[in-house]
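Quick start: what a row looks like.
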Amino acid sequence: MPKEPDMTRRDFFRGKIFRPIQEAARRGAAAGNAVARRDLSLSLLQRPPGAVAEGQFLASCTRCGDCVTACPPRAIRWAPPEAGEKRAGTPYIDAIRQPCVMCTDTPCIAACKPGVLRAELPPTMATARIDAIACLAWRGQPCRLCVDQCPVEGAISVDSEQRPIIDPARCTGCGVCVQVCPAPRNAVDHRPLASRPFWHG
C-alpha cells in the first residue's frame, strides 16, 4: 500500500486541516446572524415623534422618505430588511446612532403627507429610566451629561446628591441621554413604546 505523502506547510496553510473547523464556524455564524435577524424583526422600533399606532402606521406609511430628508440631525432612517418585511423601509430612530433632538417646529411631522406623524398626538417615542447600578453619578462619580444635554426642559433633573432622575411625565424618549451617557455600561434603560395612540381623524 503506498505511503501517504506528508502534509506540506502549504497544505497546512491552505486549510486542509482547518477547513472543516472553518466551515463549522461559518455555519455557526450564519445561524447566529439568523437569530439576530429574528430578534430584530420582533423588537420594537422607535418611531418619530407624533407617530400613530403601529398597525395604523404600517398600513398608511408610504415609505416616501420625506420625514427622513426633513430631519435636521438625520435621526430618522429607514428600517433595514432585518426589521421584517412589513416594517422594512419605514422610518424609525436608532438613538445610539443619532437621537431625535426634539425640534420645536417638528419638520418630520410637517413633511409627512400620509399623516402617520401627527402634531395632535403626544411626541413621546420611548420610555427611559436611569439604571442606578450603571450610572456614574449614582455611584458617586461627578457626571451630569444627560441632564445638561436633554432637549426637553424638566425631563431630567438631579436630586439633592446631584444624581439624575427622569420624569416620565415629561420625558419623550428622544434618546439624547442614551447617546451621551459615558458610563461603561449605558445607564439609560431606553425602550420604544409598545403602544401608541390610534388616530381618529
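That is the whole record. Residues 9-18, 28-39 have pLDDT under 50 and may be disordered. Residues 19-42 form the longest helix (24 residues).
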